[in-house]
Every structure is written in structure tokens, then in C-alpha cells.
């Protein structure tokens, strides 16, 4: 008697991600001849994921290149089901995923007024402004002239969803971006506020903390992609391809009766 051998190949590619190292897991389980993929988002913020696959002799429950937003703290949500079409013919599947922090469907920030990210009665200048030549090309990001070990305060309240503070490396090329010590705060409009180049062990908040506007969150430094001590600040949402949408933000300053956009090389005082 001749036996027909079934071939099932699992090619599980590494999860690809951008900017942050996120705690996302995918589990496989065989149920009644089908293969179920479960996804868990162990982060404190939504995560957007793109799922692509290749199959042979299999039906899949979701379209190829599906993009889905997984809520924070999601455990073993059914993500996809692979079902053999002809069970007595060879079948196989392989897949890969790309994911980013946050909800990529957010397309607009609210008009909240931001606070200067330093102490009351202190003045700082904008070392590099929006669309700056060094590292802010096509980005609405700000570099404040914080000296080493200056206090960093929250420009807007929210939930701390990412903290990296273990690095003491820096250089003036993009290769060193992986060494950026930073804090990311999720705002009520689902935008993300990022405070970068903190000193080693310079964060005084942890993931999950709820912070108020003006609260101390850390101390400035010179880590990652940096030429010298300063504080990099931006408000953004991620795109699934790893790029970002940056948002211009107005700040409350002593120098103006109304909130304003900060300008490169100008000095601003926090009097509140």
C-alpha cells in the first residue's frame, strides 16, 4: 500500500518593527486541521501591524497585506486562520509582520497648548527647529538647548508607553539612533510625545505611569544620534512603513500673550 505524505512547512519570519522594540507575540495552534494564529499586544498603547503571507494549497481568513490595529494589553486575539484546500495534497504557508507603536489611523492632532519642557523661570533656546538641516529634515521636531542633567518636564500629560534609559553611547550619525535614551507618552488624542537623548538612567518615570503636564519625567543628556547635550522633542504618529507623521505644536511662553510655534535660534522662557 502506498501512503501519501503531507508536507506542511512553517516559515516564521522575525517580526519586523520600527523605532521601538515592542513586546508583540504571535502563537500558532493547530485546531481541527486548521492553523490558527493568535496575536498578543503586551504594550500599554495600541500597535499597528501589517501581515503578509505566501501560501500553497491553503485558504486564509484575511486578505494579504492586512493592516490591523491591536489594542493595548490584548491577549491571544485570533488574527488569522490558514485552512488546507485539498488535505491530501501538499500545503504550506509562510508569513511575516511589520508593526509600529500607536494607531496609524490617527490623522490629526488636537489643538492642545503645550508647555515648555523645563522648569519654571528657566529660559532655553531652540538649537534646531522644524525641518532643521542636521536631523529634522521634513520633520516637525524641536531641539532644546538643555545642558547635561537639566530637568525635563512633560509638555503634555498622558500615559508613559515607552522608556529607554540604559545607553551611554552617542555619535553624530544616524547609526547611533539605536542608542537614543527616550521617553514616549501617549496623549488623549492618540498622538505620541517623544523626549530623546536623556542621560543614562535619566528617566524618573516608568511604563504605565500617568503623568501630568509640567511633571518632572527625566534628565537631559547626550545619547544616541547627537552632537552634544540637548533635548529632542516631537509629537507624531507612526505610519506602517516606519515613517512618521509629525505635528506642529503651539507652546505657552512668556514672550507671547498667545500660544506660538517655536522658532529656531530663538529663546523662550517658562513663567508658569
Structural features, described:
There is one protein chain. This protein has 272 residues and is mainly beta. It folds into 2 domains: 92 residues, Immunoglobulin-like (Sandwich); 157 residues, Glucose Permease (Domain IIA) (Distorted Sandwich), CATH 2.70.70.10. Helix content is 0%, strand content 47%. It has no helices and 25 strands. The strands form 6 sheets. Strands 11, 12, 14, 16, 17, 19, 22, 23 and 25 form a 9-stranded antiparallel beta sheet that branches. It is elongated. The termini are far apart.
Q: Which structural traits does this protein have?
A:
272 residues; mainly beta; Immunoglobulin-like; Glucose Permease (Domain IIA); 2 domains; nine-stranded antiparallel sheet; five-stranded mixed sheet; 25 strands; 47% strand; elongated
Please give the structural blueprint.
Elements: E1 10-12, E2 16-17, E3 24-31, E4 34-41, E5 47-56, E6 58-60, E7 66-70, E8 74-84, E9 92-101, E10 114-115, E11 122-128, E12 141-144, E13 151-153, E14 158-164, E15 170-171, E16 182-186, E17 192-196, E18 198-203, E19 210-211, E20 216-220, E21 224-225, E22 231-238, E23 244-246, E24 251-252, E25 267-270
Amino acid at each position: 500500500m502506498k501512503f501519501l505524505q503531507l508536507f506542511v512547512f512553517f516559515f516564521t519570519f522575525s517580526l519586523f518593527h520600527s523605532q521601538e522594540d515592542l513586546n508583540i507575540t504571535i502563537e500558532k495552534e493547530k485546531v481541527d486541521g486548521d492553523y490558527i494564529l493568535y496575536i498578543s499586544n503586551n504594550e500599554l498603547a495600541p500597535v499597528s501591524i501589517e501581515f503578509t503571507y505566501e501560501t500553497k494549497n491553503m485558504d486564509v481568513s484575511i486578505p494579504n497585506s492586512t493592516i490591523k490595529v491591536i489594542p493595548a494589553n490584548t491577549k491571544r486575539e485570533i488574527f488569522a486562520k490558514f485552512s488546507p484546500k485539498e488535505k491530501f495534497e501538499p500545503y504550506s504557508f509562510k508569513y511575516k509582520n511589520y508593526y509600529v507603536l500607536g494607531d496609524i489611523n490617527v490623522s490629526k492632532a488636537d489643538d492642545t497648548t503645550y508647555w515648555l519642557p523645563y522648569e519654571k523661570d528657566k529660559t532655553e533656546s531652540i538649537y534646531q527647529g522644524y525641518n532643521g538641516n542636521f536631523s529634522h529634515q521634513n520633520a516637525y521636531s524641536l531641539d532644546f538647548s538643555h545642558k547635561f542633567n537639566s530637568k525635563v518636564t512633560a509638555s503634555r500629560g498622558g500615559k508613559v508607553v515607552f522608556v529607554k534609559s540604559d545607553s551611554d553611547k552617542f555619535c553624530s550619525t544616524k547609526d547611533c539612533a539605536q542608542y537614543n535614551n527616550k521617553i514616549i507618552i501617549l496623549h488623549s488624542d492618540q498622538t505620541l510625545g517623544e523626549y530623546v537623548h536623556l542621560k543614562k538612567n535619566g528617566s524618573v518615570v516608568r511604563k504605565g505611569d500617568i503623568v501630568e503636564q509640567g511633571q518632572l519625567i527625566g534628565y537631559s543628556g547626550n545619547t544616541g544620534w547627537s552632537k552634544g547635550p540637548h533635548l529632542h522633542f516631537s509629537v507624531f504618529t507612526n505610519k506602517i512603513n516606519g515613517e512618521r507623521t509629525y505635528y506642529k505644536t503651539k507652546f505657552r511662553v512668556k514672550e507671547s500673550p498667545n500660544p506660538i510655534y517655536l522658532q529656531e535660534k530663538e529663546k523662550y522662557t517658562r513663567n508658569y
